Amino acid sequence: MLGACVIAAQPTASAQVPEVVGSRAAGMGGAFVAVASDSSATWWNPAGLAAGPLFDMVVARGGIDMSPDVAEAEVWRHRTSWFALGTPPLGLSYYRFRLTDIRAFDPIGPPQADRETRGAEVPVRSLAASQLGVTLVQTVLPGVHTGATPS
Question: Fewest beta carbons less than 10 Å away: which of 59, 72, 92, 115?
Answer without folding.
Answer: 115
